[in-house]
Design goal:
It is a single chain. This protein is mainly alpha-helical. The protein is about 45% helix and about 10% strand. A hairpin with a 2-residue loop joins strand 6 and strand 7. Helix 7 crosses helix 8. It is globular and about 60 Å long. The two termini are about 30 Å apart.
């Protein structure tokens, strides 16, 4: 099925925020929510949802939010939930990585937050619009508020909601050593995308090479980006755009342009459908085939080799 490509403003305007109930995604939640939907698509609306999932009422809503935001489940018009292709391939009993033991799977899920529908739109705005060397939770919240002021629907949302999103973003990615052995541990801390800055209660994005990010996962993100953000019919894209454009893999993974090229060069040695070329001083990614199909091909290649 072809993906309808809208412009960035339309994706943002249609986005949602503040539905995580202040909870970051905890270890085991995604598998728990996914498995529950397989059994009952109405599980999150069921009177016994608290007992079924073994968590509090607010956590039930948070599990549903994160499973949807990561594109592991989806809802039809009636609110009935069903699993997605990604969820089926990744989290079923004999899937690619059902218990998310490989950090590559966390990178893949992190990427899903930035493709439409933007159920966690403030994640996109934080990663794209926050260019401060260091920032506090309030600084980040102010940036989110300013970034949504031009969108009529989002501009009406309470400032407190933006504050809660800013706090959740920081807590999701900043390593919390005290929580590593507790049930509140957020596995996305491992990505080390945000770290504590020198000044107390301030933070900074880690804009460097990510050694735990596999080239094939990065290549898959590039094809996913092309499928959702680039008009169909193109078979080439600049490395510069893949590094700096809104919700590009370079922005989402916080990488320098040199790393983007290195990852894709490594991936091209494994995937025969892609190559890097120099066109008038500009490095370009050339590819043969539909971007969505190449996305799945890169993922299948990576996880098959991990078996």
């Amino acid at each position: 099925m072809a993906i309808e490509v809208l412009n960035v403003n339309e994706y943002i305007e249609q986005g949602n925020l503040g539905r995580h109930e202040t909870f970051t995604p905890r270890y085991g939640w995604l598998k728990k929510g996914f498995d529950a939907v397989i059994v009952d698509g109405n599980v999150f609306k069921a009177p016994d949802a608290i007992e079924t999932l073994g968590v509090g009422k607010n956590m039930v809503r948070s599990i549903r939010f994160w499973c949807q935001a990561f594109k592991l489940i989806k809802s039809d018009r009636t609110g009935f939930m069903e699993t997605t292709s990604l969820g089926d391939k990744l989290l079923v009993e004999n899937g690619w990585d059902p218990f998310l033991e490989d950090i590559a799977s966390l990178w893949l899920l992190h990427w899903q937050l930035f493709i439409p529908p933007l159920d966690a739109v403030n994640w996109s705005l934080a990663f794209n619009k926050c260019n401060l060397w260091s920032f506090s939770t309030k600084h980040l919240a102010d940036i989110l508020i300013t970034s949504t002021s031009q969108y009529e629907r989002l501009a009406k949302i309470s400032d407190k909601t933006f504050g809660r999103d800013a706090s959740c973003i920081i807590r999701m990615y900043v390593e919390d050593l005290s929580a590593k052995t507790s049930e509140i541990y957020c596995p996305f801390n491992q990505l080390e995308l945000i770290r504590q800055a020198e000044q107390k209660s301030t933070f900074t994005f880690e804009n460097n090479y990510k050694y735990s990010l596999p080239p094939l996962i990065f290549a898959a993100a590039c094809f996913s980006y092309i499928a959702h953000y680039v008009p169909p019919g193109q078979n080439t894209i600049s490395i510069h755009r893949l590094t700096y454009d809104f919700n590009s893999p370079g922005v989402v993974f916080k990488l320098p342009e040199s790393a983007t090229g290195d990852y894709l060069l490594d991936a091209s040695r494994i995937l025969p459908d892609i190559s890097l070329v120099d066109q008038i001083g500009s490095n370009q990614l050339n590819f043969e085939g539909e971007p969505e199909q190449l996305y799945w091909k890169a993922l299948e290649k990576f996880y098959e080799e991990k078996q």
